[in-house]
Amino acid sequence: MTREIEVKYRVRDLAALEAALLHRGVRLSPPAHQDDQAYAEQGWTYGQSKLGVTFARLRTQQGRHLFTVKRPLDNAMACFEHETEVTDRAEMHSAIVAMGFYPTVRIVKTRRTSTLKNMTICVDEVEHAGSFVEIERTVHGDENGLAVQEELHAFACSLGLDLERTTETYDSLVRAT
Known about the structure:
Structural class: alpha+beta
Strand content: over 45%
Largest sheet: 8 strands, antiparallel, barrel
Order of helices and strands: EHEEEEHEEEHEH
Number of helices: 4
Number of strands: 9
Shape: globular
CATH topology: Hypothetical Protein Pfu-838710-001
Radius of gyration: 16 Å
Helix content: 10-25%
CATH architecture: Beta Barrel
């Protein structure tokens, strides 16, 4: 079973983050525009726990459409995940709704990424929510998601920056604004 484990931080000083990452040898990719539509299972609403609930996402980036299904296991940032490319965003939207999901929020962001060792680092500027850095790792098998989050958090702290950790997903952050 593949799981995506991540930690997320609100960034107050983007230039300081970029400098700290560069000091570690992290060179961010050129910016990519991402247009995400989030979906939830019928019956789930904001304010309820996300644990064990399946969520879907339809992302368009550089002319490609990605369909993703996530189910939070340990917490909202430690998810079982499947992702595949689809050719027709409108048809996939209709299929997702037919499968019993409903659209929740649209998340539009500019993302720059890089890798360092076994981590993926994403620097995001999210419309209506602000600037963030996500540090994530893909794990297989029964590796402890909470322990992985602590390792990722230790890396974030080692950057020596004023980062504000959040346990909210982008859909919740955008919806709150």
